[in-house]
Amino acid sequence: MQRFSAVSAVPFLPYINYYPVRPMQRSSATARRLVGGAVCLDFANAIDWDSDGSERPAHADAWAAPADLALWGTRVGLVDSAPPVVAHGRELAAARSLRRALHDLFAAIAARQEPSREAVARLEGDYAQAISASELTEVDGSWQLAWAHDDPRRIRFAAAVDAVDLLRDDERLARVRMCPGHNCGWLFVDTSGRRRWCSMEVCGARAKMRRLYERQRRTRMDLLGGRRVSRDDTAVHPSGECRNAADR
Ligand SMILES: [Zn+2]
Predict the structure, then answer these.
(1) How close is the Cα of 49 to the center of ligand 1, in Å?
(2) Structural domain that includes position 52
(3) pLDDT tens across 107-142, in order?
(4) How much distance in Å is there from the Cα of 136 to the middle of ligand 1?
(5) Does residue 62 form part of some domain?
(6) Considering the domain boundaries, does residue 57 fall inside one?
(7) How far does residue 76's CA lie from ligand 1's centre (Å)?
(8) Number of independent structural domains in the chain
């Protein structure tokens, strides 16, 4: 009886048992968080990445269909709302290919490693295409590269140009980081010099929850004299898995 009372007195126990696990939802092009601090990094963050650098399943992809790419481009200001860009499957595949290359390239830079030749070559190819298809246009007193309003490639082209701009900027480039969150792999520019997570509300909170859970588990093990916690108690623990991609 005395042992039972001690366990019941652990103040955070109800939190473990009632942690809400929501059903998996598809990540949305219109709701995806934009935390990269550079268009090219948000472009790479349009999907989640495993720790080995491979892409997470389709539910973690904000670009499930060609229309999503156009929606995303409009949201980040790369596409005017009118006339609308009509993306197609081939352009979606090209954008995903550049996304993979940008993630490989900037993840390597964040890890102080040499980027793969394939990733650099892919960016070179898209950048060359972007320049040849562009024209210089004056907008509000400054001159910018611009593409035809209805050219579906303009989202990919703008991301490629932004990536080259970031590579040329040694101060910002030295601040590129990759979030260490479980199944995240998002990239961002750490302007404060103290940023660790892509988002405190997502990966920061999950890491905090995991630490809390581990403390709870150890405390319970101690109180129970080393006996393992029951399966029911662990069934809903906050593992940090991206259970609800729509949060992103
Ligand atoms: Zn993260």
Answers:
(1) 10
(2) 39-178
(3) 999 999 999 999 999 999 999 999 999 999 998 899
(4) 36
(5) yes
(6) yes
(7) 20
(8) 1
Residue 71 Cα to ligand 1 midpoint, Å, equals 23
Q: Strand locations in the chain, DSSP E?
A: 135-139, 142-146, 176-178, 187-189
- How close is the Cα of 48 to the center of ligand 1, in Å? 9
Q: Tell me how far the alpha carbon of residue 188 lies from the centroid of ligand 1, in angstroms.
A: 10
Whether 155 is covered by a domain: the verdict is yes
What are phi and psi for residue 241, nearest 5 degrees? Answer: -60, 140
120: CATH? 1.10.3300.10
Output the pTM of the full model.
Answer: 0.76
Q: Specify if 233 maps to a domain.
A: no
Q: How far apart are CA 91 and CA 183, in angstroms?
A: 26
| Ion ligand 1 residues within 5 Å by Cβ | 179, 181, 184, 186, 198, 203
**Cα(82) to centroid(ligand 1), Å:** 33
Residue 156 Cα distances to 52, 72, 131, 133, 176, angstroms: 25, 11, 12, 12, 20
